[in-house]
Amino acid sequence: MTTTPERNLVTTDDPLLTVVVPAYDNGHLLEMTLHSLTLQTLPRDRFEVIVVDDGSNVPVEPVVARYVDRLPLTYLANEVNRGRSVTRNRAIAAGRGEIVLFLDADQPAHPTTLERHRDFHVGRGLRPTVLLGRSLALDWGAIDALKRGETPDHRVIGDYNEDIRDYLLFAPSRRRDWKRAPWIYGHTNNASVDRATLDAVGGFDENLVTWGGEDNELFYRIFHHHGDDIDLFHLGDEAITYDLPHFRVMPMLMSQLTQNMRYLAQKHPRFDMEFFGYPGNWANAIRRIMRFEDALAACERHGLGRVDTLPAPVLAELEDRDCLLIGYGASKVRLGDGGRTFDYDAPLGEQNWHLAGVVTGLEDQRFERVVSVDLWRLFAPEELGAFLVESVRIGRRVDLVRSAATVTPADLLPLQIVDDLEFIRITIEPYFRLEVTEVEGTRTVSLLGPRG
């Protein structure tokens, strides 16, 4: 085994692939993963394996030692458990390859998997890109096959041991749309990315120590670093690993994930991360993100959501008040010291976030008023309901403002827009005390609190 090698990156037509494998107390699983790497079709002089033991109670070094003469292998160990982010970053720093493939210790690879990842990146000229492979869940029969050194086939994998993302991508619309927020599907159990991109974004966030979300967060930053390029992420359906069954205490892991999601919501106060944390599956999260992105674009095209177009008497009511003001140009209004804005024209900052408003993380009754100019009209029914409930929770009064901007529903199709305020009034009146006002063509439906 070697210590950390020197970095000597040279772009060639046959680049080195670095395989990053974090390990913690799972030597029996790591054994099968390392064995699978000895069976790869990619020549051994074209890849390296970096295993980092994250302070295991039972060190995995004896397992690694059995493969030191069979693989181009580097073994590193953390003295104490520091989490998967730190561990993967250490492996990335130790590697020499221009392509980095993340595998988990419980992910034996199909014999062609490393070659498929390498060929994909070479085929794209080593440009910034991410390939997400498939991880097939296994039952006991496939474990026996792997222990015999065999590649599991359909007889032992079966019809139902698929990648957990498969059902979310089955419908043609889901397969089309996932690239609008591909980081949601980004898992580092079988994914590769060019090293230059990893270096540019700084690797994994080492504040994420416990289980869950650190891989999504890395790919979130990668996606936005490259300007939300919908050609950046790709699905590698034939780049397959096998997800070995292992013991998990799911209530504990879900509690850790919940804490991590709170951290991510604070770190990235944008609507896409907000919808990622909202209840529902990943496909629904992407649909909500797409819809809100498209709504913002439509507002810009048609002059909707412009706070500066509101009548002077309406704006005067907001000045020096502790309000949450949602709309383009909101940050230019002189609010009170406790005010905050969701102004998508202005940069993110302590007082200005880019949330949609369905999950804000703000305190109960924080604001005198929550005011949304037009943006509320482009929510789908389920999101509008969530927005109203959240707004009533954080604000003593909620103003749904319909500006005087002229637009017909047909102008926005396939986006939907609330055009009939009377229908909205009738719909929500059983749940909230309402007041409807009009000033110079600007109409407002105000929620004065829940009924009862």
Provide keyphrases for this structure.
elongated, Glycosyltransferase family 2 protein, alpha/beta, Nucleotide-diphossugar_trans, single chain, 452 residues, transferase, EC 2.4.-.-, 13 strands, Glycosyltransf_2
What report would you give on this structure?
This protein has 452 residues and is α/β, with parallel strands linked by helices. Helices cover 34% and strands 19% of the residues. The chain contains 16 helices and 13 strands. It has helices at residues 27-37, 61-65, 84-94, 113-123, 140-147, 154-157, 172-177, 195-201, 214-225, 250-267, 271-276, 282-302, 312-318, 381-394, 409-412, 421-428, and strands at residues 17-23, 47-54, 73-78, 99-103, 130-137, 190-194, 233-243, 323-326, 340-342, 369-373, 398-402, 432-439, 442-450. Strands 3-2-1-4-6-5-7 form a seven-stranded mixed sheet, with helices on both faces. A six-stranded mixed sheet has the order 9-8-10-11-13-12, sandwiched between helices. It starts with 16 loop residues before the first strand and ends with a strand.
